């Protein structure tokens, strides 16, 4: 029997390369029809994994473009539009759905078309000819990143990578585009290590619960890592922004709690301090960071990602190791990663 989930996790380096080839032309065709001003706001809309993608994308987008950017669950667009849409600022909305048929995303798109006609809506999907592509005049389509599995892995990283490329292009940052273009090769080189990470921390039985921590754009990645583990294994797991973990959640740490930190280089000293605090209450800590992060390199339980990238460009490079972790934990528990409990590939209301 073909294991779709594992195949799609391993296919990420090749699929990223394809995304970087096709997105520039798609985006530039869209950009010609957009009129942006310094007051333009960007809204990123999604459900489930696509909402966590939106959270990371909005942070990454604002960081380099300077435009105000935010992420909202699709349902809030049509249930509480006054709380998520500006009445005064022009808005561009990215509506994200792997299948292009997610009910709430389509309802949000239709609500914007009927009640907020000045909002420019851009669909982001992995399915050509889907309802989302029919309901939006402009869209980014990554058909090569479509999946047969229920859980989203390569679709998540490819759509996030596409949005990063768009942000770098809008910001006129060729240096960041060059970094993004290095990602497929770096991912291919580190894939064996990422799989080893998954086996090391997923196949063991010494952790009964997991907590994922991330700061800024990495918070959305931590949320998505939690969701992947939850979907595939139903193991108790939670996520928090890194330094907020001390403010209450650290109380749930036990010797059987594994805390996984998506650590950037810019804030390594803060992360190292938190590592010591978690270990002081007997928690297990694993840091995903770069090979050259000297502040964290001396700590136990460090998985080293390739060097040579900014914290901004490195975002998607964290995900394959976290995908492997969820996959390996599922197989260790005897679950089928291709058939997660109570889930289907798309939610249609």
From TrEMBL:
SUPFAM superfamilies on file: SIS domain
Domain called SIS: residue spans: 30-177, 200-340
Gene3D superfamilies registered for this protein in UniProt: Glucose-6-phosphate isomerase like protein, domain 1 (3.40.50.10490)
Keywords linked to the UniProt accession: Repeat
UniProt-listed Pfam families: SIS
A GO biological process held by the record: carbohydrate derivative metabolic process
Record-linked CDD domains: SIS_GlmS_GlmD_1, SIS_GlmS_GlmD_2
GO MF, one example: carbohydrate derivative binding
Presence of keyword Transmembrane helix: no
Top-level division of the source organism's lineage: Bacteria
Protein name as annotated: SIS domain-containing protein
